[in-house]
Amino acid sequence: MKRIITYGTFDLLHYGHINLLKRAKELGDYLVVGLSTDEFNLNEKNKKCYFSYEQRKQLLESIRYVDLVIPEEGWNQKLTDVDLYQIDTFVIGDD
Prior knowledge:
Layout: E1 3-8, H1 15-25, E2 30-36, H2 38-43, H3 53-61, E3 68-72, H4 77-84, E4 89-91
């Protein structure tokens, strides 16, 4: 099984987000999405989200391309997530 991971805030979900998730899923069998927590967005990215983490998580979980949503709580987490979730491919959007 080929595992893919991507990260983002996914606030005000739009066509670009869906397209990213679709293309990521096409690269493998299992897509993990690291979703930035409200605290991480506010403290590290200086972003205030319209939707809460739980609302954004619920939206992502309803998308057929997404197999698992995990909280992203810091920049360095990506390094450990690749090992923890046995990731084969890391996908990032063009922004």
